[in-house]
Amino acid sequence: MNILTITFSPALDKSTSVKGIKPDSKLRCELLRYDPGGGGVNVSRAIHKLGGDSTCLYVAGGPTGDKLESMLTQEGLQQHRIPCQQWTRENFIVVDTLHEHQYRFGMPGDPLSDDEWEQTRMAIKKQLATADYVVASGSLPPQSPITIFAEIARWANEQNVRCIVDTSGEALTRAAAEGVYLLKPNLRELSALAGQEEVVGLQQEQLAQQLISNGKCEVVVISLGPRGAMLATADTIEYVAAPTVPKKSTVGAGDSMVGSMVLQLAQGASLTDVVRYGVAAGTAATMNEGTTLCHKEDVDRLYQWIKNRK
Length: 310
Prior knowledge:
- By secondary structure, the chain is an alpha/beta fold.
- It has a single domain, classed as UDP-N-acetylmuramoyl-L-alanine:D-glutamate ligase.
- The chain contains ten helices and 13 strands.
- Helix 5 links the parallel strand 9 and strand 10.
- Helix 4 runs parallel beside helix 5, helix 6 crosses helix 7 and helix 8 packs antiparallel against helix 9.
- The mean pLDDT is 95.
């Protein structure tokens, strides 16, 4: 099974730690750490860390884009870089070790030109021709066509490719309107998809199955953060609890979850095991610094814990 991931706004993640953060003071940080970042980039990285393969399609430019490409090459990822004129954005993550707080500064990046968008669309269509699963995830650069995730969903449906979308806002709503295979919203995104301000009590179960009955998707996996996840199909609801672990960083936890789930889907696992492995991977990612993501030995161990828990 061939897996394609798509990232419109990748990033070079820079992370460090400091003992206490206070204003108007010189803060002496630890050595800076660099990691590739961005939704689909991290999904592909997680798949690779778990022993799978995917094609990582992304748009990148400038010296930061070159460094991103070099780091992905070092990790052994199969990649398809679409060049752009503007430099790839950088994110900055700081851990305050004194108070055990994490601060995440996400930069918006620069707009892509019309020609760059056309090149990107053409590359996506070409890669979809040989894909079985496509994961479109992450944020969009400023002034992007808000329909791009919906376009991917439509192209995937035309070619019988299972599409997984993990984004937010209107881009998510429009993609769902086209119909996808799997959605992975959190509760805030679920409420937006349902057209209401918040999800109350166990309303999440009804809203998730409503998405399915309305043809928005076939499967919903709701991310519940440290509480785990909820799986919804047309006729079943199932909760998967997350184990408690020491946490160092939450960056890339959701992408690790998505990467592990699509890998399990491609390997023919049941939906229950798909979500169990996803929760294990997302939890494992929080145990590591920066955007290290998950380690397979941690994921396998946590998966066994979840599986054996009654």
